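From the methods appendix. Each design record in this collection lists the tokenized structure first, followed by the designed amino acid sequence. Records were kept in a plain field format so they could be parsed without special tools. The example shown here is representative of the layout used throughout.

RECORD:
FOLD TOKENS (287 positions):
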């Protein structure tokens, strides 16, 4: 296997910064990782096709041996950005790796972006757009971001290409493509708006204590509703029975024994209704 070493002192690492190479066992799909400075590690991966520099990628293949353009439907698999090997202090090429792409997972590098989500300003969070491997400004409903823009793109200047997007109704929308530096730090979107129903913590703890496992908000609120209906039904039964019994005793004192027997039956019925309701709540939380 032929291995080629190329040295370049431009880009992210200065001439005075010593480059460091760490060793790794032989792998047919990945190169030895190269540390270009104290904070950035770049590693080579195989790809099914040649990837353009600045493409946002996700791991693919068996065991994550390859990279492919990141997609909006698999946002949680976003891994890094392909970088220009000539911008690295030391680049190790492996001739056995098909379409070798160098991927950075941290650091500031140029990234392909579009104006699909609107104009990008410095400091905006960037995520994957509908165009595979291309970023856009992240909206509050997108959970994962690639990092923060260190440059701006409005879709009018510094345009390097264009494409069209088609929605479910068949309507096409033109989208401009560009390239800006992005500080890569893949993480959850801090601006994300949670769609999860809020449950008071004490109520959540009670539900989890009964179920002995995490319980969703829907089950907790259904349990509250069933409990409330059951308690109201039991109280109404009990109140009606006591009231009717007292009225009956007043009208016919001689039938007191029979009336008390009927009252006892109503009380027992109320208790049974309450037990059935609480058991239903337990099953709802437990199963």
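DESIGN:
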């Amino acid at each position: 296997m032929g291995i080629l070493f190329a040295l370049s002192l431009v880009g992210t690492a200065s001439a005075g910064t010593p480059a460091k190479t760490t060793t790794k066992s032989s792998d047919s799909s990945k190169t030895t990782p190269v540390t270009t400075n104290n904070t950035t590690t770049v590693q080579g991966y195989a790809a099914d096709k040649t990837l353009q520099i600045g493409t946002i990628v996700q791991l693919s293949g068996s065991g994550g041996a390859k990279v492919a353009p990141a997609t909006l439907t698999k946002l949680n698999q976003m891994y890094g950005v392909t970088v220009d090997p000539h911008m690295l202090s030391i680049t190790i090429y492996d001739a056995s790796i098909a379409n070798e792409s160098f991927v950075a997972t941290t650091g500031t590098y140029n990234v392909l972006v579009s104006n699909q989500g609107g104009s990008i300003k410095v400091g905006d969070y960037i995520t994957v757009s509908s165009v595979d491997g291309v970023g856009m400004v992240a909206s509050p409903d997108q959970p994962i971001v690639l990092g923060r823009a260190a440059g701006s793109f409005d879709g009018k200047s510094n345009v390097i290409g264009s494409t069209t997007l088609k929605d479910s109704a068949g309507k096409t929308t033109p989208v401009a493509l560009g390239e800006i530096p992005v500080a890569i730090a893949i993480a959850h979107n801090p601006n994300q708006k949670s769609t999860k129903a809020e449950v008071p913590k004490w109520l959540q703890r009670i539900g989890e204590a009964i179920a002995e496992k995490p319980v969703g908000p829907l089950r907790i609120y259904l349990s509250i509703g069933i409990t409330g209906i059951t308690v109201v039904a039991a109280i109404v039964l009990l109140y009606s029975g006591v009231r009717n019994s007292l009225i009956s005793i007043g009208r016919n004192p001689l039938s007191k024994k029979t009336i008390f027997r009927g009252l006892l039956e109503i009380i027992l019925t109320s208790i049974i209704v309450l037990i059935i309701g609480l058991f239903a709540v337990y099953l709802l939380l437990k199963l």
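APPENDIX NOTE: The chain has two domains: 1-193, 201-286.
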